[in-house]
User: Fold this.
Amino acid sequence: MHLKPFLTTALDSATSGDRRYHLWMGGLTLVMLLGGYAYFIQLHEGLAVTGMTDHVSWGLYISNFAFLVGVAAAAMMVVLPAYVFEDVDFGRAVLMAEGVAVAALIMCLAFVVVDLGNPFASWHLIPVIGYLNWPRSLLAWDVIVLNGYLALNLAIPFYLLYSHYAGRTPEKGKYVPFIYISVFWAVSIHLVTAFLFAGLPARPFWHNALLGPRFLASAFAAGPAIMILVLWVIRSQTEYSIKDAAFAKLAMIVTVAAQINLIMLASEIFTEFYFFTHHAVSAQYLFFGLDGHNALVPWIWTAIILNVGATVVLTIHPLRRNPKWLIPACFVLFVAIWIEKGMGMVVPGFIPSPLGEIVEYAPTWVELAVTAGIWAMGLFILTVLVRVALPIELGTVRSPHIAEADREGVGVEG
Amino acid sequence: MSTERELTLDDVLQYAGQEATRPLAERLGPPPGAQYPSEIRGGCGSGSCGCGGADERGPEPAPATRDTEPAGHTILDRKLDRRGALGAMFGALAAGSQALSACSPASLASSEEREAKLLEWGEYFKGNFRLMSDEEKADSIRRLERLSRIRTGAEVNIHTTEASPGVVYGYAFNISKCQGYRNCVDACVQENNLDRDAGTQYIRIFEMEKGSSMDDLDHGDPTFQHEVPAEGHFYIGTQCFQCANPPCVEVCPVGATWQEPDGITVVDYDWCIGCRYCMAACPYWARRFNWAEPEVPAEELNPNQHYLGNRARKAGVVEKCTFCIQRSRAGRLPACAEACPTGARVFGNILDPDSEIRWVIENKQVFRLKEDLHTEPRFWYFMD
Assistant:
């Protein structure tokens, strides 16, 4: 009975705002249109307009996909304490975390779709009318876990928001079980995506046991880092208050995860280079260049320097507690992990080829435009979700039925 | 009443609902006594708009299933499987819009173009090759052959010859004999209708310096452009090794690639979604992707084709060497083995104790690439 006004209110909240809001959304729309145009060209001409080749057959798209799975999974780091341990500090951040997860997941799916050579055949993935090669293919697992996680992250916040809107207290029995499921599910989306790479003996660079754990560590650094940035924007731009304690706890999570990530990086570098074997040629290419080919060397060292710098800042307590240091450190860490997990993880797996040929990769303007378009879409979705959730959480909008009931001085039934 | 008639909206709806199981003229279902046009004629093709009014229509098309079902049934109560039903619905939508645009004066599309579009819709909704019935396979081939005729003017013959029992193919490569002429590469390109624009090649010949390790081909040069054989070098060829334990097959999310009973790993080009996971999984770099629409000059097209082999591919799908499935299953040598002037290439049935390939494996010191990966290639190297 509250659904129609709920949707109307949501649309209102999402489409009304001050000039800066409209400029922001208009700018994002412009970038999305540019991305759409580039994608149209790609559909028409084929993936030949990208920088990918038979040698480097995955590029910027799959790199972004791998990174964003981590961001999506990291919502768990807020959800878990808030719901399971009933940590009140996180109470107000949790819906935002789920919004980040939803936006990141939609971006993930979009990056996979734009990478497909034959996207019109993607219905072949649907069981019964198509054929899903499950459980053998890890990509089939990924399709299931990503869509499942998206459904969970849409359903739980919708139920909570809708209950608040309708003036009801959400019933724990109805959502807490799903929260437990989503916590395990978050780990699974990330491990499955790591296994998708680690399960390929053809590519020694990926075929190691540390890939999964490193995925998790970097995700639990990058995800909460972007959460801090989003919450900081919300706190400084709206009346929605978020406690300092929430920032402090998130910052602690980021710090520990970033430290573990660096330890794993060191362990990886040691294993590859202490006694150089044939298995380390891709790492050699990535970190130092191979036979005069060194396109990724500046990228990975930039990432490492940013990573170490941000981790040092976060490790020093007074700096971490100061927003002037914390916010830039989170941003820098986010960028560093984006490089490291994206271009630094996916591309070197293909170089050199399994037969030893070295063909380098650089994205074309089409790939860059499509990628920018998908990021703009993600930010657009996140903004809309936050925009809808905030007034309901602040209590400034309520179902008209409640307002009516309040005036008449009678209680509201659920 | 004229024997030719205009295409009406009813016709296309009817057509779309019928899963394209028979050739077009037959599918429209000739009423008793009426002779049928060999192809659908467009609404505006003859100058008058066929969709304008019922009185302009030719004979009412009879449903093809008239014998078994009462007349007047539409696609809605026809028995279809799920995919067929989806195909029918979307096909009807597409066909409807086709018919509508056929009524607009601006439409100059030929009737062949319309037929091709309808055939493509039929193709779009067909199933995975392994799940298709014999009848569905035959229908698909009919559509593909007709489409080739319309689109490129080429008459092609597409077979689905199955694996023979008691046959598993194997290949051996004599490193002492190969001189790097690359006749095999050219023959492969010709035979398999490989994309000339992109210069796609399944076979790679590495020029190796004498004394260098063959365990990995890192120090070999696959792009040599000089007179061969070059002093101080030897040559080693790679292609798909048709592994007995193929990692590329495991990873495909839609089951568009599989190993046939005779050991050949094939791709269903129409089922592949183009994710390229198989390319990442292959330890021998044997798979190729169609980054753009492949181009083969009509005069160079090999019309003898296999559904799982050298038939026309489209943009955005993966392909690979199939030991020339269209030849090997017909009892012939793959093009590369036939073209080799030095006799470096040995091909045959490894289950046949009298075959040359068996003799090589049993009597020569053979080895395979990257045996530690347990892919069990069916491609052996040996030296004299």
Summary: Residues 159 and 210 of chain B are 44 Å apart (CA to CA). Chain B has two domains: 9-125, 169-382.
